[in-house]
Design goal:
This protein is of the alpha/beta class. It has a single domain, classed as NAD(P)-binding Rossmann-like Domain (Rossmann fold). It has eleven helices and seven strands. It has a seven-stranded parallel β-sheet, sandwiched between helices. Helix 5 packs parallel to helix 7. It starts with a helix and ends in a 7-residue tail after the last strand.
């Protein structure tokens, strides 16, 4: 009985590995639009897909980020400035993409742009603190996706939304975890709606990696600024020692993000979720 079970599990494992190893043909004919390419995941993915010969359309927040990326990639890669929290900027970027892809459509969309700060106890924050994060991490994802959908549908392409392990387990106060729960929910509903058109939707859930979002110095600096501007009543209620203990907890090492596996674009059969644990690649 146990031997049969082990054999069956082994066959299932081999079948999953076989499906995962199947790579699409003609990747060089496909366009991929990636947001948040100044640094971090988006920057690494843009470079990797460019090396694979794909036609990368990289959206950066700053001129500096765009110029630096172009210096490290081929002439195939094109950049555009994009602030995902601005509907006007998103519309302009969508028009730019439409002029480039034309009848081919957009094979891939990676909603990667995001911010993490401020991270603090909910009571220490304001409505605007929450709104600033949600406007980028959630509403920005929704806005970009809706503007790109006609082009993705034409290509029967793929939508990849970068969520977070914080979209499964709430790890902090503020808008970050809230926004990532929202990204997961939006992705689930979108996957159901677009399946009839042959469009796939998946999420990537990174853990704690060494990117700007997890930069301890930035987190601690912002946290101290928030603490110093709280009312005397709130600071007395929590106490200075509580703040010091909280600050010490933020001084943890983040995992090193290795070159990302781009199976969500190159694979013939892909997964609904790609979980990136501490210091590892997608599984």
């Amino acid at each position: 009985m146990w031997l049969l079970l082990i054999v069956l599990l082994g066959l299932v494992f081999l079948y999953r590995r076989y499906r995962y190893s199947q790579i699409l043909d003609n990747l060089t004919d496909k366009y991929v639009f990636i947001t948040g390419c100044d640094t971090g995941f988006g920057n690494l993915l843009a470079k990797q897909l460019d090396k694979r010969g794909m036609k990368v359309l990289a959206a950066c927040l700053t001129d500096h980020g765009a110029d630096a990326l172009k210096k490290e990639t081929s002439s195939r890669l094109q950049t555009v400035l994009l602030d995902v929290s601005s509907s006007q900027s998103v519309s302009a970027a969508a028009d730019w993409v439409k002029d480039i892809v034309r009848d081919k459509g957009l094979w891939g969309l990676v909603n990667n742009a995001g911010i993490g700060l401020p991270v603090a106890k909910n009571e220490w924050l304001t409505k605007d603190d929450f709104a600033n994060v949600l406007n980028v991490n959630l509403l920005g994802v929704i806005d970009v996706t809706l503007k790109m959908l006609p082009m993705i549908r034409r290509a029967r392409g793929r939508v990849v939304n970068v969520a977070s392990i914080a979209g499964r387990i709430t790890i902090c106060g503020g808008g970050y975890s809230i926004s990532k729960y929202g990204v997961e929910s939006f992705s689930d509903s979108l996957r159901y709606e677009l399946s009839r058109f042959g469009v796939n939707v998946c999420i990537i859930e990174p853990g704690y990696f060494k990117t700007l979002i997890c930069n301890s110095e930035l987190i601690l600096g912002k946290l101290r600024n928030i603490w110093e501007n709280l009312s005397e009543e709130i600071r007395t209620a929590y106490g200075q020692q509580y703040f010091e203990n909280l600050s010490a907890g933020e001084k943890r090492e983040s995992g090193v993000f290795r070159q990302p596996d781009n199976h969500f674009f190159s694979g013939s059969h892909w997964q609904v979720e790609y979980l990136c644990s501490w210091g590892s690649q997608e599984r």
